[in-house]
């Protein structure tokens, strides 16, 4: 049957304006199924930073039955104003879904004007057989 994983997280904080965004996506896949990965990110700030990042990935391979995907998402930003980050991810697969999820979030002292956030999002999932 189909397996759908929906992950949504939103965090808002007030803090000044340097934004660094690194996005690396590595995969290797050989699979007899369709895998769809959708990631939508919205960055809204009360001052001068506005940005939207969206990426959609679809991979299909009808030849074999082993699929490995690796997704790395890293962000670092320093702000002195309100920042809202919303990420919605949807995984829909027609095969068995083994999902590993790791989150690391660090922030500096809330009492300071300069706020540094580091967000690490890593996902790895393997598909093996129909269920």
TrEMBL record:
Residues 1-23 are annotated as: Disordered. It comes from the Eukaryota. This is Uncharacterized protein.
């Amino acid at each position: 049957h189909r397996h759908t994983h929906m992950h949504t997280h939103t965090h808002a904080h007030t803090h000044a304006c340097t934004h660094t965004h690194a996005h690396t996506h590595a995969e290797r896949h050989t699979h007899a199924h369709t895998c769809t990965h959708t990631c939508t990110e919205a960055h809204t700030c009360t001052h001068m930073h506005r940005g939207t990042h969206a990426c959609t990935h679809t991979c299909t391979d009808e030849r074999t039955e082993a699929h490995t995907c690796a997704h790395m998402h890293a962000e670092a930003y320093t702000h002195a104003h309100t920042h809202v980050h919303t990420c919605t991810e949807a995984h829909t697969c027609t095969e068995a879904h083994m999902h590993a999820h790791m989150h690391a979030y660090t922030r500096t002292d809330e009492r300071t004007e300069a706020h540094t956030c580091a967000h690490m999002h890593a996902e790895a999932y393997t598909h093996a057989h129909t269920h």
